[in-house]
Write a structure and sequence with these properties.
Elements lengths: L1 H12 L1 H4 L4 E3 L5 E3 L9 E2 H10 L7 E4 L1 H22 L5 E6 L6 H10 L6 E4 L2 H8 L8 E4 L5 H12 L3 E6 L2 H14 L4 E5 L24 H13 L6 E5 L9 H20 L6 E3 L23 H19 L5 E4 L2 H5 L3 E11 L17 H12 L5 H20 L5 H25 L4 H10 L1 E5 L3 H4 L1 H5 L6 E3 L9 E6 L8 E2 L12 E3 L8 E4 L6 H4 L10 E7 L5 E7 L4 H7 L4 H17 L5 H14 L8
Parallel strand pairs: 4-20, 5-6, 5-12, 6-7, 7-8, 8-9, 9-10, 10-11, 11-12, 14-16
Antiparallel strand pairs: 1-2, 2-3, 4-13, 13-14, 13-19, 15-19, 16-17, 16-18, 20-21
Helix pairs in contact: 4-5, 4-11, 6-7, 7-8, 8-9, 10-11, 13-14, 13-15, 14-15, 15-16, 21-22
């Protein structure tokens, strides 16, 4: 029986669909992570969180990072391109580069460079700060450092210093003016970086970022501009420095057909440049390889209709076909697939602190007598007589009575107590109507909306704006589920709200294979801590998170599975304290303490409090600056 419940919960939350083989449920009903591809060793998430809370005194939210998953995803990506090249007899190599913008944490970058050394994993940067970070890291000798984005002279000088440091720096041109600066600085310094041309393709991707590609794209050179770049470099004898052709049709491409079209167009552009005797060696296909956030394997906004292997096969085959047709060498393929490399490795765990109910389950039954207003008697009669045959009609009557109730209250015809009675009766009718509709098992939008309005709100100890900003900003779906009690059947339909004072700090849409759910099934709260996790948050969420309400960085732990099957925490970060966030907002903590002290001194002087009480308040205020920003 318990085994069946665990299987049912695995299906309910779709773990096998979006988990990429990394997440499972053990016999204790705890969620586990198997961070090594094909390895049976696993980490019990609930035990890890309990240890962090009990022994290390961390409070939720806690970001759990699994660096071994980073390595596993790199291997999956590289194996996919190696297999595709072998099958197609493709002669070019694969050069993966990781876009720093996806997750700029040093631990993430160094793990990629360490585990991907044999695969020549490189880095991509799009700003001076990212370039500065990249130049400080040791890369494999043959890997690339691709410089994208708009550049000024300071950016280009820094890139040239990277060449001097022995890195294979590729400056990808976005505008003709950038090339003029490169030529001038090369003449001045004698340093010539590898040059890439970013093409503005006609082809576009699909999904939320479709508009980032195509002819109206923000980045890239037109065909005439690329030809002008060749002419300008020819004039100064630097034609042979053009080594890379770059394009990008959008992030999280949902439809593989769009990938095929773009690869054919890009390969044709590459082939034509080779026929013009431009010695391009690398074709950088940008990012776009998506993550199946909802596990549906469709072209919906939260999914993709292909696998990593299918994506790689289509890329290699399309490029090879065009190159063989035009009789030009197969280029080395450069990929910037940051999302798929990082999304799975980070899990945000939070605790549910309380329940916010639409109506209270423990409200005493309403007693109605002959002195009550007619609208109250009418609602009581509807509640007493509602059944599986008349629930739709009686629900509609209750809606009319609720409007009448509030109208009479606003006119001063009924008391506050009468209004309270009427509201309790109305929500009881709604609850019974929803139950009858569920038992009827009919897809009815009206009662789906009712069920959503009746759903409890679970108050989670996190800021959505900090830990999953894309959920708020663009409606990104992330898998969410409890990490324990999975040997119990969840009985509560809920939405999630965070602890910010913003009504947008909520999650009302949840992943599902066939649709988007409007409520999440969770367990009824008891006196024990209840932990819920949000998955696939390793790409973009950390760097794009905001400090809304001055909630700071979350606590963080890096978890590694050992050879003997045990696990240990390799890094531990307690997260931001109040003092950190005051400094961020340009409040000097010591000045804050001094200002508070002055106000208390004035109260002492005025005789409103004594010196001991004032000192106690100052001590409490001072100690509070060292505490975390989330609920404890």
């Amino acid at each position: 029986m318990m085994s069946q419940i665990i299987d049912d919960n695995a299906e309910l939350y779709g773990i096998e669909n979006w988990g990429a083989g990394y997440f499972h449920i053990n016999r204790s009903g705890h969620l586990t992570v198997k961070p090594l591809d094909g390895d049976l060793r696993e980490v019990d998430l609930f035990e890890v969180v309990r240890d962090l809370v009990d022994k290390h005194r961390l409070t939720t939210p806690i970001l759990l990072r699994f660096p071994q998953i980073l390595g596993a995803q790199v291997m999956r990506l590289c194996r996919a391109y190696e297999a595709a090249a072998s099958e197609c007899s493709y002669t070019g190599d694969h050069f993966p580069v990781f876009p720093i913008k996806v997750n700029p944490r040093r631990e993430v970058l160094t793990e990629f460079l360490r585990t991907g050394a044999r695969q020549n994993v490189g880095l991509e940067c799009g700003s001076k700060a990212e370039l500065q970070a990249a130049l400080s890291l040791e890369q494999p000798p043959d890997s690339l450092l691709v410089c994208n984005g708009f550049k000024d002279e300071a950016f280009l000088r820094l890139a040239m210093m990277g060449v001097r440091a022995g890195k294979r720096v590729v400056v990808v041109l976005e505008k003709l003016n950038e090339l003029r600066m490169v030529i001038r600085l090369s003449e001045e310094t004698g340093i010539v970086p590898l040059i890439g041309l970013r093409a503005k393709l006609y082809s576009r991707g699909s999904g939320k970022w479709e508009a980032s590609g195509g002819e109206a794209a923000k980045f890239g050179l037109t065909t005439s501009e690329m030809l002008e770049c060749v002419r300008m470099l020819d004039e100064v004898g630097l034609r042979n420095s053009i080594k890379l052709l770059h394009f990008h049709i959008g992030s999280q491409i949902t439809n593989i057909k769009r990938v095929k079209n773009a690869m054919k167009e890009a390969a044709r552009v590459y082939a034509r440049f080779r026929q013009l005797k431009v010695d391009i060696e690398y074709l950088d296909i940008g990012g776009g390889l998506g993550v199946d956030y909802d596990g549906s394997k469709t072209t919906s906004e939260g999914s993709i209709n292909y696998t990593i292997e299918e994506f790689a096969n289509n890329v290699v085959y399309a490029i090879q076909s065009v190159c063989d047709e035009d009789n030009v060498p197969h280029p080395h393929i450069v990929t910037e697939s940051g999302r798929v490399m990082t999304a799975h490795h980070a899990v945000c765990v939070t605790s549910v602190r309380d329940e916010i109910e639409t109506f209270a389950d423990d409200t005493p039954a309403v007693e109605v007598d002959e002195d009550d207003p007619h609208v109250i008697s009418e609602l009581k009669s509807l509640l007493d007589l509602i059944n599986a045959k008349n629930y739709r009609e009686y629900y509609h009557d209750a809606l009319d009575d609720k409007d009448d109730l509030h109208t009479q209250f606003n006119l001063g015809l009924i008391s506050l107590e009468d209004r309270a009675k009427g509201e309790v009766l109305f929500w009881d009718i709604c609850e019974r109507s929803s139950r009858f509709a569920s038992e009827a098992d009919l897809a009815d939008p009206e009662f789906e909306r009712l069920r959503r309005s009746l759903a409890s709100k679970y108050l989670c100890n996190l800021s959505l704006f900090r830990s999953a900003p894309d959920s708020w900003a663009i409606g990104q779906l992330f898998p969410i589920m409890p990490i324990h009690r999975l040997n119990e059947t969840p009985t509560e339909f809920t939405t999630l709200v965070d602890i910010t004072c913003d009504s947008d700090g909520c999650v009302k849409r949840f992943v599902d294979q066939k649709d988007v759910r409007t409520a999440l099934a969770l367990h009824k709260l008891n006196k024990e801590p209840y932990y819920v996790a949000m998955f696939l948050v390793g790409a973009y969420q950390e760097v794009m998170g905001s400090y809304h309400n001055l909630f700071g960085q979350t606590a963080e732990a890096h978890v590694v599975v050992d050879a003997d099957g045990s696990c240990h925490v390799t890094r531990l970060h307690p997260g931001s304290c109040v003092e950190d966030m005051l400094t961020f907002a340009r409040f000097e903590p010591q000045q804050c303490i001094a200002g508070f002290q002055r106000m208390l001194d004035e109260q002492v002087t005025a005789g409103h409090i004594d010196a001991e009480a004032a000192q106690e308040a100052v001590d409490l205020y001072t100690a509070a600056t060292k505490r975390g920003t989330y609920l404890e």
